[in-house]
UniProtKB/TrEMBL annotation:
The lineage of its organism: Eukaryota, Metazoa, Cnidaria, Anthozoa, Octocorallia. This is Unc-50 homolog. One of its GO terms (cellular component) is Golgi membrane. InterPro entries: UNC-50. It comes from Paramuricea clavata (Red gorgonian). It comes from the Eukaryota.
C-alpha cells in the first residue's frame, strides 16, 4: 500500500519537531528583519495592539491563520516587538519627567525596566509556560503524536499580554502619580484597582493565547492565579498598602 503525505503535513511535523522554537535560520531571519523596517508590517502590528484592548480573541484567530500560511504559530515579523519597544521607551521618558529624574537616573531606570521587567521577566514567564504547556497540557492528534508549543509563540503571548499591562501601569497610571504618595482609602482603591486590572488582563490574554492552540487541553488552569490576585487586592486595601507607591519607592531605590 502506498501512503502519501501532504507537503503541508510534512512541513508542520518538521516545524513541530524543532525545539524549542523555530530553526536557527528562521530566528536569524526574524532578528535580521528588525534592521529592514520596510519589510515590516507596522500597520498590522498597530491593528493587533488596538484589538488587544477591543477583542484580543481576534488577534489569536490571526495567529491560527498564520500557522496555516507560514507553518508556524510564532510571528515571523518583528514589527510588533519594535512598536512595543517604542512604547516602552516613551513610557520610561514619561516616568522620568514625572519623577524629575536626572539623565543618568533615566538611563538606569530604562535599563532596569527593559532588561529586568520586560526581557528578564518575559523570558522567565514564556519559558515557564512553554514548559508547562508542553509537559502537561498537550493532547495527541489523530496520528497519535503530540505537537509542540513553540517557544517563540510563548514569547509572543507574553508580548501580547504585556502591551495592555504596559499601557495601564506605565501610561494611564502617570495621570494618577499625585495619588501614589497618599494612603487614604480612595487613593489606595484607585491605584490598586489599576494594578488589579492590568494583571488580570495579562492573565486573560495569556489564557486566550494558549487556549487558541487546538492541541492543548485544560488551559483554564492558567486562570487559577486570578483568585489569588483578588485576595492580594483585598489584603492590600485592608492593610492600607498602596501598591503604586511601593513600586515607585522600589524604582527610586533601584536608580539611586
Amino acid at each position: 500500500m502506498k501512503v502519501t503525505i501532504s507537503s503541508e503535513s510534512t512541513s508542520d511535523q518538521a516545524v513541530s519537531n524543532l525545539c524549542p522554537n523555530l530553526s536557527a535560520s528562521k530566528r536569524w531571519k526574524y532578528f535580521r528583519r528588525i534592521l529592514k523596517y520596510r519589510q515590516m508590517d507596522f500597520e498590522f502590528a498597530l491593528w493587533q495592539m488596538l484589538y488587544l484592548f477591543i477583542s484580543p480573541s481576534k488577534v489569536y484567530r490571526n495567529f491560527e491563520y498564520h500557522k496555516h500560511t507560514k507553518h508556524q504559530w510564532a510571528r515571523d515579523d518583528p514589527a510588533f516587538l519594535v512598536l512595543l519597544s517604542i512604547w516602552l521607551s516613551v513610557s520610561c521618558i514619561g516616568f522620568s519627567l514625572v519623577l524629575h529624574l536626572s539623565f543618568f537616573a533615566f538611563i538606569r531606570f530604562t535599563l532596569w525596566v527593559v532588561l529586568m521587567e520586560f526581557v528578564g521577566v518575559g523570558l522567565l514567564i514564556a519559558t515557564l509556560l512553554w514548559f508547562i504547556s508542553n509537559k502537561y497540557l498537550r493532547t495527541r492528534n489523530a496520528e497519535g503524536t503530540k505537537q509542540l508549543v513553540e517557544w517563540g509563540y510563548s514569547f509572543d503571548v507574553h508580548l501580547n499580554a504585556f502591551f495592555p499591562l504596559l499601557v495601564i501601569l506605565h501610561v494611564i497610571q502617570l495621570f494618577f502619580v499625585k495619588f501614589l504618595d497618599h494612603h487614604h482609602g480612595f487613593t489606595i482603591l484607585l491605584c490598586n484597582t489599576l494594578w488589579l486590572i492590568a494583571f488580570i488582563y495579562y492573565g486573560y490574554i495569556t489564557f486566550l493565547g494558549y487556549s487558541a492552540l487546538p492541541f492543548l487541553r485544560k488551559t483554564v488552569v492558567l486562570l487559577y492565579p486570578v483568585p489569588l490576585l483578588l485576595i492580594l487586592y483585598i489584603l492590600a486595601f485592608v492593610y492600607s498598602c498602596n501598591i503604586g507607591h511601593e513600586v515607585l519607592d522600589f524604582y527610586k531605590h533601584v536608580i539611586r
